[in-house]
Amino acid sequence: MENQDSFVLHGNLIYTPDRNKFISLKDGYMVVEKGTITSVSAEKPAMADNLPVKDCQGKLIMPGFADMHLHAPQYIQIGMGMDYKLLDWLDGYTFQEEPKFADPNYARKIYPRFVDEMTACGTTSSAIFATIHSESTDILCDILAQKGVRAYVGKVNMDTNSAPALTEETAKSLQDTEAFIEKWQNHPLVRPIITPRFVPSVTADMMTGLGKLAEKYQVPVQSHLSENPGEIELVKKLFPQDQYYMSVYDRFGLFGQTPTLMAHCIHLSDAEIAIMADKGVYAVHCPASNLNLASGLMPMRKMLNAGVKVVLGSDIGAGHTLYMPHEIVRAIEVSKIRSIENPEETPLKLSEAFYLATKAGGEFFGQTGSFEIGWSADFLITDVPEYQQERSVDEQLQNFIYHGTAQDIQEVYVQGRPVKNTRK
């Protein structure tokens, strides 16, 4: 069974085809053929008669999570420096840790632990910042590929206003980035993404070159946007000719010209929100990180109402866990806090937050994150306690999101193939 990617899955199915509702099937059936979902139904379909059945009766089955912003090298510093705000935290911790990845052996020590924990937490798709170091970034990609999970990985670019050990020579950085793109652009699961760290750490020449690479290879872009007031003021000083922080990225072809992820997006004017919506740029909400570094409360409801594509990210190590249900709950809590002073910003419903952590993020990769015909069979099988068995499937999910842990995730599948099985 575990070596096949065609089977019938039987159990309690739940997913969100749109953000306003769950679809749930108690004792439902999902047919997977060659890693793709071909049927979802309340009864076993005749087309499944010749396929093996994976019986998960009493288990809760949901799409895998999409973590759309995280820093793999910061795995080792999770929970450290949480008394600082962003720029001081970067200087005091992150920019001390990331130079260690100049040593490939250090990457071989840390990255397997990171990937194992990420997948154990149920993440099947992710958008990852590595470091400026090409060899260590390749090592991370190799580990992800061997694990069989889906990811966009960025070799980070930094050529100014950075620690000496993290300051690249511009031309060499662009050359290394192009080589990285060419090496990974055709991999079925692990692919490259252009990754300027953020505007203060890259020169105009670097951004010009990265924009050209994004256009040449039609690869996506990821970076940070309007996370912290001090960061925003620094961008204004560095690029006074640009109207907004996002205008800098846009001027260099790094803001929606190819699919684009911008993390945080906390301190945006209505005009900036409208620009993001118009350009189809994704805003990655990182609620735990935003709270830990006292960066602010993202106006999630305002952005959704404006038509911005919003997804969720753990943002480790400023975020303190890779377990995405934690981010689902935090996103709901932040929306409730905002609604106290902004009653027009109605709080997120669980279906909405779950959608952001599954289908909304998964669609950045293609057809994953939902149980729909033709979509990739990326899913989790989770334990349901005996005392919850009589509850509805919706209530079982509520209990898992708010009260469950990674230990409740028994198996993780990507394209119909197992990634993790903790209970042999």
TrEMBL record:
Pathway: Purine metabolism; guanine degradation; xanthine from guanine: step 1/1
Domain Amidohydrolase-related: 61-419
UniProt cross-references to Pfam families, sorted A to Z: Amidohydro_1
Record text on cofactor binding: Binds 1 zinc ion per subunit.
Catalytic activity: guanine + H2O + H(+) = xanthine + NH4(+)
Annotated GO biological process: guanine catabolic process
Protein keywords: Hydrolase, Metal-binding, Zinc
E.C. number: 3.5.4.3
InterPro entries reported in the protein's UniProt record: Amidohydro-rel, Guanine_deaminase, Metal-dep_hydrolase_composite, Metal_Hydrolase, Metallo-dep_hydrolases
Enzyme class: hydrolase
Required cofactor names: Zn(2+)
One Gene Ontology cellular component: cytosol
Molecular function per GO: guanine deaminase activity; zinc ion binding
Family, as annotated: Belongs to the metallo-dependent hydrolases superfamily. ATZ/TRZ family.
PANTHER family: GUANINE DEAMINASE
Role played: Catalyzes the hydrolytic deamination of guanine, producing xanthine and ammonia.
Protein name as it appears in the record: Guanine deaminase
Organism: Selenomonas ruminantium
Annotated gene: guaD
